Amino acid sequence: MSEATGVKEPPRYTKKDFESDQDVRWCPGCGDYAILSAIQKSMPDLGIPREDIVFISGIGCSSRFPYYMNTYGFHTIHGRAPAIATGLRLARPDLKVFVVTGDGDGLSIGGNHLIHVLRRNVNVTILLFNNKVYGLTKGQYSPTTEFGKMTKSTPFGSADRPVNPLTFALGVGATFVARTVDRNVAHMEEIVKRAAHHKGAAFVEILQNCNVYNDLAWNAVYDRELKVMHELRVQHGKPLLFGPIDDRRGLVLEGSKPKVVRVKDVAEGALWVYDETDPWAAQALALLTSDPEFPIPVGVLLNVEAPVYEEVLIDQEKKAVADRGVGDVAELLTSGDTWRIP
Amino acid sequence: MSDGTPVSAPKKPRRELDRAVVRFAGDSGDGMQVTGEQFTTETAWAGNDLSTLPNFPAEIRAPAGTLFGVSSFQIQFGRHRVYTPGDRLDCLVAMNPAALKTNLSDLKDGGLLILNTNSFDQKNLDRAGYKTNPMDDSALAGRYRVHKVEISRLTKEALEDLSLGTKEKERCKNFFSLGLVSWIYTRPIEPTVTWIKKRFAKNLEMVEANIRALKAGYHFGETAEIFGECYGIEPAELPSGLYRSITGTRALAWGLLAAAQRSGLSMVYGAYPITPASDILHELAQHKRFRVRTFQAEDEIAAVGSVIGAAFGGAIGVCATSGPGLALKAEGMGLAVMAELPIVVFDIQRAGPSTGMPTKTEQADLLQAMYGRSSEAPVVILAPATPGDCFFVAYEAVRLAVKYMVPVLVLSDGYLANGAEPWVIPNPESLPEISVGFRTEKEGFFPYVRDEATLARPWVRPGTPGLEHQIGGLEKEHITGHVSYAPDNHELMVKLRAEKVRRVAQEIPATTINGPSAGDLLVVGWGGTLGAITGAVEEAQMEGKAVASVHIRHMNPLPPDLGQILRQYRRVLVPEINSGQLVRLLRAEYLVDAVGFNRVRGLPLATSEIKEAIDQILKEKE
Fold it and tell me: Which of residues 77-116 of A touch B (CB under 8 A)?
């Protein structure tokens, strides 16, 4: 606490300050290790005292996360972390709240809560680890598993059409939507920090590898060669480019539909320059993931401002107190019709 | 007399009564709830003790004239203590044929029956399923004192010169009825006049119309030849003090505000709309000045989740629901048991299972409250006995939750929620202390280290430096709170969680016995049946029977002296609005041969039926 300003100045942390004393119990080789490391590394840069940070999770492999962070943490119920985080923010708007979830926790059992925390724009940072499979229950298909995929519970192929987490988040009105990859620590750090600084609900899909039940599900963005043609780095104010250095590909918009072109074939200025404050652009870009003709966008797709739920409520409260003073129960009890019996 | 101005007429004789039971019944759109509430206020002003029972359909705008669209409001008032809204009616006001059909069977022989003759047309008779007009039935006149009054026409005539439309004039007829019944029972109409002025302040024409209709009804009673007398009921000898009328819903909400103010804690109230609990949300949402943050969640699960999150943050987390919603909250409550966080859950019980009869009362969630969670998940359970008691129980729930770091479940019901009673306004200063000590001391801190007296674990507000820790739904190692699958540790933690709830027994005052401390029969009740049981037991006592009653407010743990008390009587009778739930707990806990008296009709128990059950069981003994 600085004497002069009264504002807490966080100590100079290192990654180590955010490592808890608990044994990490994920399978060896799990993508969650890299995510944990990246998040621990990005914490010192947030400039927030460690005691003011809370990690809340639901159930699943990803949801063990809070135990491994040396912050306040709460491992709750399957799918319900967004609801618990909302209540925490209502009670304690001074805290920085993260929600850690997975594709099953966040999009299946907790799909409803995810909708509402995003549309209300509660100030929480939501990290959804998407490995397209149920890991902790040992290998059933999840809501993001590809159609036709054979898993333990779909020996003849999944009949479910998968949900695209990004179009889901955009569709329910999220104000910050991004994607990153567990194999890219630097990019994860950058995205997590940007999400954490966003005012309102920030949604980050982290493509994550389950090396036991769905190994290399995201190989298109892992494999050095495949990645060149399949990973599309999204950067605000820059054209959407991918492909080999000597033969770059880019996206152009034909009407409302994106199209892949060879950069050298189109006029300068014809390329789609990305604007992360444009919700229409974000929807179009997010949809690419569902189409194998297109690369997989990675980066910040949307970053806009909107009223923050708990701030609106607290403003109403402040106004009520300013107008009529803090409530008094004795006064309340005797308000309205009363009568005295001697 | 058509203009509503006072007409001087010879004063009619006034007969003194001890008590009266009146019911206003009409179509959903006839304003019967407002009529009843205003009659209640007038009666409170008259100084009588009283108890009310609103009864309305679940349909918001049921088709006019139908049997299922009938809405009613019943009140019993008297010069002595009044425990219930009454079993049988002394006076029934039926605003249409459907109201007559659905309510007549409750009217005493010789009771006053006031009918709005204008509504007994062919259409309404058909809708109510009457083949012939019951008003023409000589049996009706032979059995009751029937007063056929052209309520609709007289109301319209009283408002003739006003520019309101016919429909709006017609809508004032409930105030005519109120005025008439106010005259019959010599109630002061001033409080209603004041209320109308305030309620319709933005529409002066409506103020004029409703006051005129009210006075027209009052004067009609005074002057019309059909009413030979009116009735007076002397003020009751109630304890002195400042009184107000209060419903169970409002009392629960205000009890929470009192607890928040006293403890200095902020409060988060998370709720999903459900009948009959939603009114608590509506009430609290108005009180932002009390720093209560209300959250309308996306579902019942999110509601309980939000209050768990709030409690983790160091606030009072409270939610309310009804039976089906409580089922959805079961998993969340299990987490609160495991994480040992102080949350309060109100269950405003209604008739079920499933959607059941949402606006009707029941006491059938006791076993759900006790056992309706996975594994061993004990919580503290309280049950208010009257609408006013809801205030103290809500306060007590918060006090116990934060003192023992435990979820507290409060079982109210539809009858308590909507019913009202005159209530001595308490001084908030006189309520017990709610002490909250957030842990800040680093030395010796572990998340599951326990207080010796209460077994409570420390409550730490996130934001406290040096006490960063992680909790969750996985089993915790004793003291350290680390995740543990060790068999002996699990058994120890199961026992500790149960013992913590059991220790709440040290907070329970000695049980009050209404009657002899030993005898032939003890009647044991809980929740909203207090009035009916007390009335029945007192009747039996006046007949010289060795009968006593006790009423349980702490359902889990049960009062520590209860076992001893049960053994002082030859028989134990447990009346409940369910198929026998408390009776099972008592039999299991104390090995007593308690028997149940069970009705599950969506209605409060009647004093008379409990009295019959008492007589019956005493006869069996012989």
Answer: 77, 80, 82-92, 94-95, 112-113, 115-116
